[in-house]
């Protein structure tokens, strides 16, 4: 009788876990609706979009990819993303849409990377799905400013994630590390501030395979040096001048970013508990290293002026892997002595789902049920078209502090507001650098409609 009751209870617990997995999958799909739909709208998601589109066109020959000194614009990103986006933009006829589609695809690739990482670190298929869904839902729910936006960060992280998966495969066989190292270096030439994954790989090798670490470090250094040499041949010294564009830093930015951890709080708690109680497991230790470095680099990068939520994305990846491993390790956790593994898994999934629901972002729901939302979208698209028309009809050099509108108007890229601000803050430009151009009649600033930016 007791055995029968136990089996019934276990079946019921398993069913509840299955229901929660279904809820998580549903919430992930619902969250993804808005960034996917928005990618095809004629609105500005972020000021970076016009900036990236200008340089994607530059890679296709419209202007120098790395501007000469003395201009009020600069390109502090490595070159690869602009050739990728520019090439796809030529194919489909729109560099902005190309960047947005690549961003959406990158989220899928990174979620696949979470899945593969969980599997390679000892988790089963269900656990790997939990990690991947946690990543996809978190990104689409809380980081909509980047998902489906024309910016190379997620594209670079996708390539870096493929490199990390290749590293984990090499780690499991203890051979074949070269491919992973080269993939990570390649990702660095798409966006250069994604450093947690390569640091994790190198430190793990240093602690466990010192000779292999030396070989890998030499290969990485050679590949980076070769990449810089090619960039010098292609772009000259302006490449390095642009890459070193000054930026102001302040510790208060890092302290202010502590609240941003709320969006991955459930995963962080799960990682902290499993990371401590299962630290004897080499796979968990690898995950611990990934997330400790993720936390450190998140706060370090957030000291920079203007650094956005993307500083957190490698940490989101690592915490997603940890969440999948927490689900997988439920039967061997100390808490499993008091509660069944399925009960622990149910609580974890319930907490994840509740956190996803607890958000003021309701665009996916409004998209499905609110006709006024579609009217608002139409008004914003009309505002973009009107501003673009005003810019086109303005003679001479003209700009708008909606860079996408400036780009759509066909006006040349003559001023980068953020770059100018940083130049002023760091003492490299006088405060009146822009106003002097306006007063001298060399630049017209067209007022942007407040509806332009979402």
Describe this structure in words.
There is one protein chain. Helix 1 packs across helix 16 (363-369) and helix 3 crosses helix 4. This protein has a two-stranded parallel ribbon. The mean pLDDT is 92. The radius of gyration is 24 Å and the shape is globular. It folds into 2 domains: 13-43 and 76-368, no CATH class; 371-445, no CATH class. The chain has helices at residues 2-38, 48-59, 80-92, 95-120, 125-142, 153-173, 177-188, 196-208, 210-235, 238-243, 251-256, 265-277, 282-302, 313-328, 341-357, 363-369, 371-392, 403-409, 417-425, 433-439, and strands at 398-399, 444-445. The protein is mostly helical and 454 residues long.
List keywords for this structure.
2 strands; two-stranded parallel ribbon; mainly alpha; 2 domains; 20 helices; about 450 residues
The number of domains: 2
Inertia-based shape: globular
Distance between the amino and carboxyl termini: 61 Å
Q: Helical element count?
A: 20
Helix content: 55-70%
- Poorly predicted runs are none
Q: Count of DSSP E strands? A: 2
């Amino acid at each position: 009788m007791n055995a029968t009751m136990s089996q019934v209870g276990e079946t019921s617990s398993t069913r509840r876990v299955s229901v929660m997995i279904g809820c998580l999958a549903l919430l992930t799909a619902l969250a993804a609706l808005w960034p996917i739909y928005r990618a095809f709208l004629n609105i500005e998601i972020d000021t970076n979009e016009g900036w990236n589109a200008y340089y994607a066109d530059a890679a296709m020959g419209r202007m120098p990819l790395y501007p000469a000194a003395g201009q009020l614009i600069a390109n502090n990103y490595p070159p690869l993303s602009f050739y990728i986006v520019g090439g796809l933009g030529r194919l489909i006829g729109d560099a902005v849409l190309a960047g947005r589609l690549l961003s959406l695809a990158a989220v899928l690739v990174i979620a696949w990377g979470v899945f593969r990482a969980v599997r390679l670190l000892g988790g089963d298929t269900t656990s790997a799905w939990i990690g991947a869904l946690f990543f996809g839902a978190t990104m689409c729910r809380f980081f909509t400013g980047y998902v489906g936006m024309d910016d190379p960060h997620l594209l670079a992280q996708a390539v870096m994630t493929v490199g990390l998966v290749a590293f984990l495969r090499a780690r499991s066989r203890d051979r074949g590390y070269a491919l992973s190292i080269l993939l990570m270096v390649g990702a660095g030439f798409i966006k250069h501030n994604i450093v947690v994954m390569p640091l994790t790989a190198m430190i793990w090798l240093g602690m466990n395979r010192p000779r292999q670490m030396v070989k890998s470090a030499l290969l990485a250094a050679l590949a980076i040096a070769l990449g810089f040499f090619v960039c010098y041949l292609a772009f000259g010294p302006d490449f390095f001048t642009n890459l070193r564009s000054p930026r102001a830093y302040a510790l208060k930015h890092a302290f202010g970013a502590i609240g941003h951890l709320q969006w991955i709080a459930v995963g962080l708690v799960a990682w902290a508990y499993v990371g401590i109680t299962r630290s004897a497991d080499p796979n968990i230790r690898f995950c611990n290293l990934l997330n400790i470095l993720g936390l450190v680099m998140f706060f370090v990068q957030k000291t920079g002026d203007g650094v956005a939520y993307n500083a957190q994305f490698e940490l989101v990846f690592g915490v997603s892997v940890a969440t999948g491993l927490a689900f997988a390790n439920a039967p061997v956790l100390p808490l499993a002595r008091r509660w069944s593994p399925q009960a622990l898994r149910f609580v974890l999934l319930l907490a994840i789902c509740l956190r996803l629901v607890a958000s003021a972002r309701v665009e996916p729901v409004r998209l499905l049920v609110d006709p006024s939302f579609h009217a608002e979208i139409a008004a914003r698209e009309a505002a973009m078209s009107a501003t673009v028309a005003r810019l086109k009809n303005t003679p001479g050099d003209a700009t708008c502090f909606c860079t996408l509108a400036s780009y759509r108007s066909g006006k040349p890229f003559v001023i980068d507001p953020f770059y100018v601000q940083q130049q002023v803050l760091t003492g490299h430009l006088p405060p009146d650098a822009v106003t002097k151009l306006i007063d001298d009649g060399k630049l017209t600033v067209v007022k942007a409609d407040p509806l332009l930016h979402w």
